[in-house]
Amino acid sequence: MWIADGWKDYELLDCGGGEKLERWDKQILVRPDPQAIWETDHKNPGWRQANARYSRSSTGGGHWDKHKLPEQWPIRYRDLCFQVKPMNFKHTGLFPEQAANWDFIRRQIREAGRPVSVLNLFAYTGGATIAAASAGASVCHVDAARGMVTWARENARSSGLENAPIRYIVDDCKKFIKREITRGRKYDAIIMDPPSYGRGPNGEVWRFEESIGEFVALCAQVLSDHPLFIIINSYTAGISPSVPAYILGRTVTPLYGGRVEAAELGLLCQETGLLLPCGHASRWIGGK
């Protein structure tokens, strides 16, 4: 398991009973978590004193019960800064376990010793985009949701990267890749965080288990002659981290060599010392 253990502004205080207790800077939140199915004794006072709790509805969805909680606030990871905004379906706009990938991204780019261009697909609010840009890469940030791209711009400004070479694209990722192939544009690294299920603007259906293989093959066509890495994140239930790793190994390794690694992403629970699994990542790593 790759552990995101470099946080100071975020802590997983406790988890259990299908929920997790978190500190986001000075704000204490309680959110559902499908992995934390063991019991907890709720000794941590944060369970009773939380600033907000997300409660699921028996009919689907859910809602935030907010006490004293700002609409948004900044949170820092090393020298990066993000705007946290509790939103629908329990999300805050940031997945803290992804910091394990951010450290990997920055290390790979800094050690490359050359200019690096990065393509971030299904890029959400830009955590990986900002990590890559902070290490000196030029980044193409692609997401189909205009609001998420706007949020990513805001996070870049918060991190002092408003003038960094980041290209923001609002588009369907698969259609964008096909156009990049036609244009002959190449990238040294690709990051993707595809959904489990989604629909495109014209009703196109994305199912991770049915779509990811073809999508990775398309992405391989926009790699440069000496690519650095590819990262596939997944939160899809029932998919092992080995599965995207196999796809990378069968699609990219025959073309470029390199190696593949995969693991769960996790957060350390301060109360119990347990590691909470939070999805997983598969990485193809090439030469420098």
Overall pLDDT confidence? 95
The H-and-E topology, N to C, reads as EEEEHEEEEHEHEHEHEEEHEHHEE
Unreliable segments of 5+ consecutive residues: none
Strand content: 25-35%
Describe it for me?
- There is one protein chain.
- This protein has 288 residues and is an alpha/beta fold.
- Helices cover 27% and strands 33% of the residues.
- It is built from eight helices and 17 strands.
- The protein has helices spanning 46-49, 99-112, 127-134, 146-158, 173-183, 208-220, 242-251, 253-256; strands spanning 2-3, 10-16, 19-24, 27-32, 52-56, 62-66, 73-77, 80-84, 117-121, 138-143, 166-170, 189-192, 197-199, 205-207, 229-234, 259-268, 275-285.
- The protein has an eight-stranded mixed sheet with strand order 1-16-17-15-12-9-10-11, with helices on both faces. Strands 2-3-4-5-6 form a five-stranded mixed sheet.
- Helix 2 packs parallel to helix 3 and helix 6 (208-220) runs parallel beside helix 7.
- The longest helix has 14 residues, at 99-112.
- The radius of gyration is 19 Å and the shape is globular.
- It starts with a strand and ends with a strand.
- The relative contact order is 0.15.
